[in-house]
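Example 370, ligand pyridoxal-5'-phosphate.
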Amino acid sequence: MPTASFDTHFEALPSNQPTGDEIRDEILKNPGFGKHFTDHMAHIRWTVDADWHGHQVRPYGPLTLDPAASVLHYGQEIFEGIKAYRHADGSIWTFRPEKNAERFRRSARRLALPELSDEDFIGSLKALLAQDHSWVPTPASASDECSLYLRPFMIASEAFLGVRPAHEVDYYVIASPAAAYFKGGIEPVSIWLSSHYKRAAPGGTGFAKCGGNYAASLAAQKEAAANDCSQVAFLDAAENKWIEELGGMNLFFVFKDGRLVTPRLTDTILEGVTRNSVLTLAKDEGLTPEERPISIDEWREGAASGEITEVFACGTAAVITPVGELVSEEERIRLTAGGNNEVAKRIRTKLLDLQYGRSEDKYGWLTQLA
Ligand SMILES: *Cc1c(COP(=O)(O)O)cnc(C)c1O
């Protein structure tokens, strides 16, 4: 991709109170996740008459929103999650942003929001990084997974309580320095299987990255936490049988014979960029990827027989995380053959080496941001 073409038309309005070097360095030493934000944000406005306009990078700060803004009432909102990685030579790169841009348009169509071009989406990341590049942490070693997490989002800001797609919309990108997502690193996590909550239904918004899906998953997440689980696995709404995904990560199953199975995409599953990348990298690792329905019974039986040797979850924020056990009100499913999570670790290292520029970018997945 000719990345130079995305150096676009964003007006820079630099902050006159940027964070001091010492304070920023202190934050970057231990950023946690999603707690600290950089000095600027990108913004583009859309109106039904003027289309996208007013491209800016301006100081980070509270939004002024009319209390009647429709996002506050009807939840017309979508978002993305993508990271900026600092390479050893100091340059800053992101991973497959055109996939996120395409998904953002898919989400926009489902939520009846206006579509944003690749040029504006990737351009907004570049424009923000042009100001806030010093917020991208430098990894201390190959096992240091620090990055700058970028959060593009779009909201219906028109002050109107009638129910129809908004005529005024705002797009923003904010950025937050991040350490590894789960504190335990690649320790296997326990996952809660929700017995009656569903994340998505056929014809609904499951494939779109929208705030509403997350709002709908929080009661199940609360159940998970009460049962010492860190995430929730959801089954399909129609038959209560097929594995879909976690609240914010896709699932993979490693079989003894080298098959790597992940649920086939439907409109109730969000297509992760990490999922797609794992399917490609798995082939290089001599695995046989399979996208097909996989049931809770197959998980239970495969775990018991040793046919399934690993289960892992994947997403941009936490990369690849082994699943140690599946817990529900009735049972605990543990892998008899489990233990070393060797495949998950191998693919994880491959992916991170690519993202941090430690291996050859043979698929052309990296785009330079700064
Ligand atoms: C964002 C997200 C994922 C992971 O997608 P990536 O592009 O890999 O980060 C998976 N499931 C849901 C529901 C998500 O919102």
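Summary: The CA atoms of residues 207 and 271 lie 7 Å apart.
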